[in-house]
Write a structure and sequence with these properties.
- This protein has about 170 residues and is α+β, with helices and mostly antiparallel strands.
- It has one domain: 3-Layer(aba) Sandwich (NADH Oxidase).
- It contains six helices and four strands, in the order H-H-E-H-E-H-E-H-E-H.
- Strands 1-2-4-3 form a four-stranded antiparallel beta sheet, with helices on both faces.
- Helix 2 (about 25-40) runs antiparallel to helix 4.
- About 30% of the residues are buried.
- The protein binds flavin mononucleotide (FMN).
- Flavin mononucleotide (FMN) binds near residues 123 and 126.
- Flavin mononucleotide binds next to loops.
């Protein structure tokens, strides 16, 4: 097995990939990705999210449709991150609505980085029909991120970021 990337190597290396090989992902790598998500920070440590692991072919094909025909959602492994605000009992709607979304998206972000560190690739998919995705994974929870993961079949083009100085302001 190739060596795992360091944190800063991982951050530089992580790019959205939209073409994956059919190669399946080792169980140990899936476990590491899920453990990384589980270790992520969350509001009051309440972990107001749930991760649905999708490996079944039929469900992945349905997820392609529910994500408006984003074909790469049919990758070896798809994780669906949902908010699960039942444990959060403070700050009213801010807790229920905002923190649960933040918890779920942080967990997704950690998962993307873990996948990269393990030599895998992914793409964050936010453009989807929430109701359709929830039905496919059989939940009443709100899906906020669909994350296809797999071995890359393409090399991403150079990144076109905004200038750092335009995004960071001293105040
Ligand atoms: C909130 C969010 C929603 C996104 N939704 C989609 C999507 O539906 N489909 C897609 O192909 N990429 C999606 N992306 C990926 C972005 O297009 C990508 O991160 C961006 O172009 C920067 O490229 P990079 O990830 O290679 O750095 C999304 C990313 C974020 C953070």
């Amino acid at each position: 097995m190739k060596k795992e990337l360091s944190f800063f190597e991982t951050v530089e290396k992580r790019r959205s990939v939209r073409s994956f090989s059919k190669k399946s992902i080792e169980k140990s790598k899936i476990q590491k990705i899920l453990r990384t998500a589980w270790m992520s920070p969350s509001a009051m440590g309440m972990q107001n999210f749930k991760i649905f692991v999708v490996e079944e072919q039929k469900k992945k094909e349905k997820l392609v449709k529910a994500t408006h025909d984003q074909e790469y959602v049919n990758s070896s492994l798809v994780l669906v991150f949902c908010t699960d605000p039942k444990r959060i009992k403070f700050m009213g709607n801010r807790g229920k609505q905002l923190f649960s979304v933040q918890d779920a998206t942080i967990a997704a972000s950690y998962s993307q980085l873990a996948a990269t560190a393990l030599g895998l690739s992914s793409v964050w998919v936010g453009h989807f029909n929430e109701k359709a995705v929830a039905e496919i994974i059989k939940t009443k929870l709100r899906p906020v991120v669909v994350l296809p993961i797999g071995y890359a079949n393409e090399k991403p083009k150079a990144k076109k970021n905004q200038k750092m100085k335009d995004l960071i302001k001293k105040t």
